[in-house]
Amino acid sequence: MKTNPHPSTCVDAEIFAADVELEGPPEVEFNPGIASRIPAKGSAGGALVRNTSGQVLFVVPMYKPFLDIPGGIADANESPKAACQREVVEEIGPDIAVGRLLVVDWIPRNGVWRDSHQFVFDGGVLTDEQASAARTHDDELTGVRFLSLDEAAPRIHPSLHRRLELAVNAAESGTTIYAEFGHAL
């Protein structure tokens, strides 16, 4: 029997293994070489975490000049939600549960980064006590900041600003939004 190919999927491991089994044997190429010609597309999962004042939790990476939200790039054979949960635990600890999907946003290639799908999940609202205790647990980060989206605007990419505005609206309205480069479609 096939087993879960990646231990950090958010689907129950037994259900996942059964679903993989139902798919049948690994697919082989009917026309050799076609799979290698299909473009690779990255994906990442991030968490919209807010405090009771509505400010968003941003992490301060040491490897780039912009703020970001907790989360990260999905590993091979890892779901965006599992990547988000893994990175949230690595970056700010296990106290934040990654909830429902708020936004799926396609972003175009940017320099060395290929086009990708950015998934934003609801990380909930922290109590005042939880928010004041928020710290980073990752050597790649130098800190965390709670900022309004307007305060964060000069320190984040405009597309992330647009994506987070959509995520806040989705969290408040109970909807899920599809976007392209931060614009809802």
TrEMBL record:
Key words of the record: Hydrolase
Domain of life, per lineage: Bacteria
One Gene Ontology MF term: hydrolase activity
Keyword presence, Hydrolase: yes
Keyword Hydrolase applies: yes
Swiss-Prot/TrEMBL cofactor(s): Mg(2+)
Limits of the Nudix hydrolase domain: 40-169
Protein name from the UniProt record: ADP-ribose pyrophosphatase YjhB, NUDIX family
Organism annotation: Lentzea jiangxiensis
